[in-house]
Design brief:
GO terms for molecular function: GTP diphosphokinase activity; guanosine-3',5'-bis(diphosphate) 3'-diphosphatase activity. The chain is mostly helical and 210 residues long. It has helices at 2-15, 21-32, 47-58, 63-71, 74-77, 82-89, 91-100, 109-120, 125-149, 161-179, 185-198. The protein contains eleven helices and no strands. Helix 3 packs across helix 9.
């Protein structure tokens, strides 16, 4: 637990937080994600939301957005209800976590990704920043694992490289449209750059999945 408390202290210092909301969120997320690991590696899953929170801290996001970054996968990927988030962290954080969560996992991957893309087109800036930080950490993980495993990496995903390229390029396009003059501009640009490193534009053909 000490390594997580160290991360909590760093985030609290970076944000200048006057209360223990971020520390409480880290402790909550550590318990929620206990026993979960990142794809391909044996890295504990909790390091992903901590990385997301760190990215949001660098963007000077407010405490509610950073807290939501720590908690963003607890409802979708852990046995946690949105009501628990609301009771422990308030309506604003709960609304952000809800916005970051995919709909029913029973529907197809394509339906879920179309839903995410559609929702982001009209999402407020806090949701865009949260989503972009999440996706940026994901694409960076893919980049590292791809350098180590090559094309074998794509067998670990629900869909292969072509559909992942479709999804990430569409995300980058939406973020670029929202970026101009906004405080998260550098974040959106970083995401777009990393997407093009993993999925070079010359290999990408936009298409709609039926």
């Amino acid at each position: 637990m000490s390594i997580y408390k160290g991360s909590a202290s760093t985030l609290l210092h970076s944000t200048g937080a006057s209360n223990s909301m971020i520390l409480k969120a880290i402790e909550f997320a550590v318990q929620a994600h206990a026993g979960q690991y990142r794809k391909i590696t044996r890295i504990p899953y909790i390091f992903h939301p901590l990385q997301v929170a760190d990215i949001l801290t660098e963007c000077r996001c407010n405490e509610e957005v950073i807290t939501a970054g720590i908690l963003h996968d607890t409802v979708e990927d852990a046995p946690v209800s949105l009501e628990e988030i609301r009771e422990n962290f308030g309506n604003d954080v709960a609304a952000l976590v809800e916005a970051a969560s995919e709909p029913d996992k029973a529907v197809s991957w394509e339906e879920r990704k179309h839903h995410t893309l559609s929702a982001l087109k009209t999402a407020p800036m806090d949701v865009l920043l949260l989503s972009c930080a999440d996706k940026l950490d994901n694409i960076r993980s893919i980049q590292k694992d791809s350098a180590r495993l090559g094309e074998l990496i794509w067998s670990q995903f629900n869909r292969g490289k072509e559909k992942q390229a479709w999804y990430y390029h569409n995300l980058a396009s939406i973020f670029r449209e929202k970026a101009d003059g906004e405080p998260g501009n550098s974040l959106f640009e970083s995401f777009s750059g990393d997407v093009h490193l993993v999925f070079p534009a010359r290999e990408y053909a936009a298409r709609q999945f039926v």
